[in-house]
Structures are given as C-alpha cells and as structure tokens.
Amino acid sequence: MVSAQSSNLGKTYSLMMIKSFLIWTFTLGVCLLVVGFPLVVLMATVGCLLSIVLQSVMPVSAVLLVAGALVMFNVMAVVFAAGVLTAKGVHPSDVKWLSWLHGEADQAQTTVYASCPLTCEIKI
Fold first, then answer.
1. Please, what is the average pLDDT of the chain?
2. Membrane-spanning regions, if any (predicted)?
3. Three-state SS annotation for the chain
4. pLDDT of residue 102
5. Which of 3-12, 16-25, 40-49, 81-90 has the weakest average pLDDT?
6. What pLDDT was estimated at residue 81?
7. Among 28, 40, 36, 35, which residue's Cα sits nearest to residue 101?
8. Residue 108 in this model has a pLDDT that exceeds 80
9. Which residues touch 54 (CB under 8 Å, ≥6 apart)?
10. Contacts of residue 33, Cβ cutoff 8 Å, sequence gap at least 6
11. Between the chain's N and C termini, which has fewer beta carbons within 10 Å?
12. Which residues touch 50 (CB under 8 Å, ≥6 apart)?
C-alpha cells in the first residue's frame, strides 16, 4: 500500500515537472520571437555576414552551416533556460507577468462611463 502511494506521487511529480518544462519552453520560445525580435534581426545580420566570409573557405555548405548553427543556438538557449527554471522549481503560475498565459484578466482597468462624473455622485 505504501509503495503504491509513493509510486503514484513520483509519477505525479514527474508529470508536473514535464508539464512545467513544456510550458516554459513554449513561453520562452514565444517571448524570443515576439519580444526578442531585435535580437533575431541582429543574429540574422551576423549570420549573413558570417556566411559571406565562410563562402570563400567552404563554398558548398557555408549558408547551411551558419543557418543551422543559429537555429540550434536559439533552440538550445530556450531548452536550457526552460530546464534551469524547471530545475529551480519556478512554475509559470508563480510568475506575475505570465497572467496572459493562464487567461487571467487584469483587474487594473475599471470602466468609467462618460456620464458618471455628472450622475454618479447624485443621491436621491
């Protein structure tokens, strides 16, 4: 009985870790594409210049090598960061600025109607 419960807890914990890792991977990938757009443009520029330089050394596969290296660098950076965040135990629901990921509404805005300053204070 005790071993069955500990096995079930282990499966639950491992599934929770996998879920957290996948959510972090998705979130960091989206943030890299959306927020890190200037970084992507800079990497593309450096990649183009590097492929031009390498074209004289190895003319067949310079562009393929540089493009593959840049894509692999981005993928490995996202996977490594997601792994570190998962290993530290940071769950995406604990992060304040990720409320958009969970569909939670931001309650900072309140609706004020145009007639409210004139009629809201009137008490009959």
1. 80
2. 21-54, 60-87
3. CHHHHHHHHHHHHHHHHHHHHHHHHHHHHHHHHHCCHHHHHHHHHHHHHHHHHHHCCCCCCHHHHHHHHHHHHHHHHHHHHHHHHHHCCCCHHHCHHHHHHHCCCCCCCCCCCCCHHHHCCCCC
4. 65
5. 3-12
6. 94
7. 28
8. no
9. 62, 65, 66
10. 40
11. C
12. 66
Amino acid, single-letter form, for residue 119: T
Q: Which two tokens stand for residue 103?
A: 């569909």
Amino acid (one-letter) located at 117: P
